[in-house]
Structures are given as C-alpha cells and as structure tokens.
Amino acid sequence: MTQDISAGDKILNSFLRVVVFALIIILVAIPLCILLDKLGLFDSLS
C-alpha cells in the first residue's frame, strides 16, 4: 500500500510544520518573557 504524495502536499506539510514550530516557540517565549520581566531583567537592558 504505497500512496504517492504529490509535490503540493509535501509543500503544504512542510509549511504547516514550520507554522506549528513557530507557534510552539511563541507559546514558550511568552511565559519566559513574563518571568524575565518579573525578575527585572528588561529594566536593566534599557
């Protein structure tokens, strides 16, 4: 049972993988930035 995947499906799959990866990075970065703000790190940078 081999299914041939078209080039468009491969491009769509890789694009969706990049989007999901970017969303995971954003979801991790938000609490990290909130934590660093609570610790006062951003105040010392400016």
Radius of gyration: 19 Å
Shape: rod-shaped
H/E element order: HH
Give the overall average pLDDT: 90
- Proportion of residues in helical segments: over 70%
Q: Give the biggest sheet.
A: none
Number of strands: 0
Count of individual helical segments: 2
Structural class: mainly alpha
Fraction of residues in β-strands: under 5%
| Unreliable residue stretches | none
Terminal residue distance: 60 Å
Characteristic key phrases:
mainly alpha; 46 residues
Describe this structure in words.
With 46 residues, this protein is an all-alpha fold. Helix content is 83%, strand content 0%. The chain is built from two helices and no strands. The chain has helices at residues 7-39, 41-45. It is rod-shaped and about 55 Å long. The N and C termini lie far apart (60 Å). The mean pLDDT is 90.
Please outline what is shown here.
The protein has helices spanning 7-39, 41-45. It is an all-alpha fold.
Record the SSE blueprint:
Layout: H1 7-39, H2 41-45
